[in-house]
Amino acid sequence: MQVTATKQNVNAESIKGAIASKIDSAGFATWISPLQFEICQNRLNLVAQNQFTADYVKKEYGNVLQSIAADFLLDLNICVKSSGVVAHSANDNVICAYDFNAQKNSVRNKNTFDKFITCDDNMFAVAACKKIALGNASFSQLFINGVSGSGKSLLVDCICNTTELNVVKMSGGQFVADFARSLRDKTIFAFKDFCRNCDIFIMDDVCALAGKRASCDEFLQLLIDLKNAGKSVVLTANVAPNALIGFDRRIQSLLASGLVVDVVAPNAFVTRGMLIRGGVDVNVATELSKNISGNGHLTDGIINKIKTYEELMGQHVDMNVASTLLGDLLAKNKTPLSMVKTMCEKMGVTFDEVCGNSRARRLVRVRQIMMAVLKDVTNLSLTEIGNVCGGRDHATVVYALAQIEKQKANDLILGAEIDEMIKLCK
Known about the structure:
There is one protein chain. The protein is an alpha/beta fold. The chain folds into 4 domains: about 5-80, GMP Synthetase, Chain A, domain 3, CATH 3.30.300; about 115-260, 3-Layer(aba) Sandwich (Rossmann fold); about 270-330, Helicase, Ruva Protein, domain 3, CATH 1.10.8; about 335-425, Chromosomal Replication Initiator Protein Dnaa, Chain: A, CATH 1.10.1750. It has helices spanning about 10-20, 25-30, 50-70, 100-105, 125-135, 150-160, 170-185, 190-195, 215-230, 250-255, 270-275, 280-290, 295-315, 320-325, 325-330, 335-345, 350-355, 360-375, 380-390, 395-410, 410-425, and strands at about 35-40, 45-50, 75-80, 140-145, 165-170, 200-205, 230-235, 260. It has a 5-stranded parallel β-sheet with strand order 5-6-7-4-8, with helices on both faces. The longest helix has 21 residues, at about 50-70. The N and C termini lie far apart (about 80 Å).
């Protein structure tokens, strides 16, 4: 039914009735009814509670609303309520429950790119982060992957502390918790606005979203909206996008569509530089770097331990003191992860291939050998062995061990290969 109107009979209720006749009742009740209708100087102002609602109404109902406004001889303007006090509505109650300022104004550390010690293998990743910080990157999404302690979180801190742009940074766990709380408190649109109201969005440790379907769906839509809006996105994870466990193919595909860079763990040169910069004696730093390279977190812990010892005991930590204070570290320890990486190098495969989903016969054999070796040289449970080998479940490890035992009886080469790997890891 076409509406013909004059200025005398134009009012909010007649316009609402015209809109209700053109769209479905659920859409009207959810999106249109909560809007504030204002008619001023031949213009119909539809005032939304937040930017997300305004953008959604424009996208889904903009053409219909424009047509109806024209029927009433009015221009259409969809805008956001400017007042700090927002009325309760069916869409967005208790808007102030999500504390924006606490997130954006949190005290940052002083890490910058000038203080970031790197090696040649990580120069590409550092250069990409600098481009993001400057705001002139040709890529809108950066995915940084690397093992724990390789410097991923340090790199995103450098972006935050260097850029002049508006940054929203949160961990994967924080995203899950805040998303769940916003659903409970009915502040979901405020949460959506917060995540989208930025120039750079950073999520540290995407893996925390694994297996959480609702959070993953919200995260997927967030990435799409940020990308469409031309915003920059920086994500970190322990593995490459195609090796993520607990994510469907849509998210893996979208994560892989941007620039994917990997960072390697600190080598001996980088570790020595970190120790010296932290105030550790040069001779101590040189000796320690031979045994603790490959883990930035451990390096930071050693620096803190030495600085605290010198502060509390009033004694400079030289090599003699360090031998007692850090004796457990001077004897080189092998972790399950380092064993897996060593075996990967020895058997000619990459760590990402082992952690990936490929069922190629060669990779399946390598995984099974690794599981058998870890069972022999460590005290890990079968579940823990599966986690180290790319997040395999308990049943997969049981099957792998059974297959290896069966094949060893008839394959002397396999037995010798496993014995060699065991000696390498002990």
